[in-house]
């Protein structure tokens, strides 16, 4: 049955944080209009109508939200969007969102639970590393606010993954990062290489090939030692490689060698 994948930016590039290596801030600064603001209701209804038109009876819409920071749009905006999709009861919807989790409330988390959202929460490991790279407009680190958001997600029973950007600095501390995940009882981890900014050939934050090698050798050793004891943390790269070794195709597009079509929709 046909599937359609749509990545929506409800708040364009608006964000409450000023992360040092934000890829979308880099993108928005290199275009004529940096931000197009919060998506308006008429645009929302046009978008959901177009999604419905693309899918046959019984089709599946994989709808993801990203930013900037998508929660800047507010929980009522997401309620409206979900209600707009509810007009079409002949298709299935899978909901997901990537967020820094700092603006989540109990009300927001209950909505995410009720709609069966899968969240990717950006948390760059232990506090000294996270706050070095992720902070607000006043320069105040966001680590404790992210942990508070994660606690609210757990309380509401929302499924989530931890998304960690691996920089040149963090690559030297793989064991400490793994220990932090264990301490926090995080079970699902996605590690994202920090890439250089657009047009840059010498970005001090970016991960170099030798950093990547060193980091993953050390991280895998920690992970494998626990796996042998039956304590398996889900790490997407390891799962993909293990599947390939056992004759199964990977699910990560970088390992498949091609990506599915995903429509990226700005707020306007």
3D architecture notes:
The protein has 268 residues and is an alpha/beta fold. It contains 10 helices and 8 strands. It has an 8-stranded parallel β-sheet with strand order 7-6-5-4-3-2-1-8. Helix 4 links the parallel strand 3 and strand 4. Helix 2 packs parallel to helix 3 and helix 7 crosses helix 8. The relative contact order is 0.14. The model has no long low-confidence stretch (mean pLDDT 94).
Q: Strand arrangement, largest sheet?
A: 7-6-5-4-3-2-1-8
Number of strands: 8
Report how far the terminal alpha carbons are from each other: 30 Å
Q: Give me the strand/helix succession.
A: EHHEHEHEHHEHEHEHHE
* Discrete helix count: 10
Q: Short summary of the structure?
A:
The chain is of the alpha/beta class and 268 residues long. The chain has helices spanning 23-28, 41-54, 75-85, 106-114, 127-133, 143-156, 174-184, 209-228, 236-245, 253-256, and strands at 3-8, 60-65, 92-99, 118-122, 159-166, 188-193, 234-235, 263-265.
What structural keywords apply?
10 helices, alpha/beta, 268 residues, 16% strand
Topology:
Blueprint: E1 3-8, H1 23-28, H2 41-54, E2 60-65, H3 75-85, E3 92-99, H4 106-114, E4 118-122, H5 127-133, H6 143-156, E5 159-166, H7 174-184, E6 188-193, H8 209-228, E7 234-235, H9 236-245, H10 253-256, E8 263-265
Parallel strand pairs: 1-2, 1-8, 2-3, 3-4, 4-5, 5-6, 6-7
Helix pairs in contact: 2-3, 7-8
